[in-house]
Amino acid sequence: MSVRLPDVLPDEDVLDFVQRLHGGFDARLYQQVLGAANAFKEGDAAIGVAAADEDSRQRARALLARTRLSDVHTHPPFEDRLHIFSLEAWDAARWRRVADWTLGQLKDFLLTADEAAVHDALDGLPSDVIACVVKLMSDAELKAVGGRIFHPLPGSRVGARGYLGARLQPNSPTDHPEDIRWQVFNGWAFAVGDVVLGTNPVSSDVASVAVVEAALHDVLVTFGLTDVMPHCVLAHIDVQAQVEALQPGTTGIWFQSLGGNEAANRTFDVTLEKMVAHAAARTGPWGLYFETGQGADATNGHHHGTDMLIHESRKYGFARALKRRVAVAQAGAGRDAAPWVHVNDVAGFIGPEVFRTREQLVRCCLEDIVMGKLHGLTLGLDVCSTLHMDVTLDDLGWCQEQLAEAGPAYLMALPTRNDPMLSYLTTSFQDHVRLRERYGLKVDDRMWAFFQRLGVIDADGRPTKHFGDPRHVYVHYRRHKGDTRTEAELRAEAEVQMARVRARGVPLAVGHGETPWTLEPTLEQDLRSLYEDAKVGLWSELSEATVESLPGAVRLRTRSEDRRDYILHPPSGESLEGASEAMVRALRERHGGRYDAQLVVSDGLDPRSLMDAGHLAPFVDTLRAELDAQGWRVAPEVLVVKHGRVRAGYQVGRLLFGDEEDARPCALVHVIGERPGSGHHAYSAYLTAPSASTWARQGAVDHDRTRLIAGISDTSVQPEDAAREAVRILAELAATARTMPPSAGDTAAMG
């Protein structure tokens, strides 16, 4: 459903319009008018708040431009405790100076007023007002506003005018410390990586995260950079806290993904109280690192009828309030209140259900840069694309060019544009070199001096003969550790290690093409081959031979009409169609309560991951044997879901196990083909084991109750190892289910 607005009256604002059409305030129409003012994105259309046509969009914007800030503030499109908490960092005195302005006046002020005056007003702007004024701006106006507001991190030039930083993202398909270290060396060889060394872990097991934390920490300690930049393993913030408790001093800045409302945050296993407590514990030099992104709230079922911009802006409001809490904690510990808090907007990671085109990607990033800056935040970008969006490798370069003028604090940085673990497209080292050259941008001064000491750039910042050579950085690393072997010996050792890294599917960028900002030609060819391979995987179908090879296979399907519907409209793959639902109910009757563990297999975004030899069968065989050995009663059937997503598994679990009177844990192992693009053809295992009484409650089981093992294939996480780890995790989940009061978890999950 889309929003079609009839003609509006002269001088009419949003509230006048709603009053005229409905004879009073109507919350749903109000939400629709706010949403209709947005530039078109699929995510808004999915929740029924996108404008039906350009005329309706312009009418909505005209209404909004005439609306007073105070009226927007006193008519929140939805309310919850997070919204109230975000006002803690809101300056009421500054607000009173602008409250009677219209949104049109605020837009003009942001574009034309003296920059000092703009900065002075920012703390007086609440999140909903910030979202609404951004709706009124063209892309060019967003670039102009973004290009005049900067919030450097304390004691640095990260986020300052004329600077473009980089979060090194040294991801490994197996969390291998060697992969991670070498990607850091690789980035530094290109004079890239000055904001944070931030790794996305495959495993969120505390022991595994601790190993990765230690590897990153070691690099910073060895080079004497622990006071210059932090490191971070992007596991759940609770896991990071556990690692710090076990190994004090080994964690750097703490990370957490944020939603725009309380219900969405519960999907991330985050509560307001939890985040406030963590902020209060950040008394050292490094504070908090947040990731956000338009669409996460809606795709997790928590949009509250409200458009994506307002949810995204409220995430920044939440971050602003938590930043204030970190400052208070620092002051309470006798330190200067200088919170090192930044936000990374991950725009494009979800997929075509949020937006599909490069133009929409740029629009989203521009909106988020400006909203973040208007909240007083240091905001970076992950300008990224999944393989099922209509954004190509070359499109990403165009997008980066469009966004540079808006002054993002930093971008991601990988050896190529393809992440070897997350299977999505983002920013490469060479992109940073190109953007710095084209726009005259710098990296943080302290790291620039470090790169000069390394000898990868000269006194004028130009590439030296060592530029793009991670082996050279490795030699310095070993020298800092006191290694006295000859350079030839160390470089030979480096070659051996680099070969091992590449063999695990992690590319390393050595050298460059015709210019310092182009990939070495063979690596460029490899990158494009992976891209084309991913497109093949995306449109593959699970073969009948694979299904028939699974003992006791029961064929189910979701409500997706076909593969295209499944890819472009993910909710269609989150629930079973009627006949399949009836089959699961019949299966439950047949089981008669004899089993407490069920295996489900879904094709996912790359069915080849389940069809490749040595992938699925070893996992299934080992899983069954290990579950049997641990006393689980495993159902003999394997439920094979065509066009299935993770939440389809939750529905299966509720249909099979749900019993309000039964407190025993019941396990569901849901195997799904991952996004293609890494070349591993990997799949994931989603592990859920609440009590049967929890399964019985509609909506009580969601992602916050599920653990994940990602990157399973014969070239990354070995299937047999993944199966054994799955059984270990299920034992932990079952123990939690046995000790958790039935009502406590259910209430938290259902909101």
From TrEMBL:
GO terms for cellular component: cytosol; ethanolamine ammonia-lyase complex. It holds the Pfam family EutC. GO terms for molecular function: ethanolamine ammonia-lyase activity. The keyword Translocase does not apply. Keywords: Lyase. GO terms for biological process: amino acid metabolic process; ethanolamine catabolic process. The keyword Phosphoprotein does not apply. It comes from the Bacteria. This is Ethanolamine ammonia-lyase subunit EutB. It comes from Corallococcus llansteffanensis.
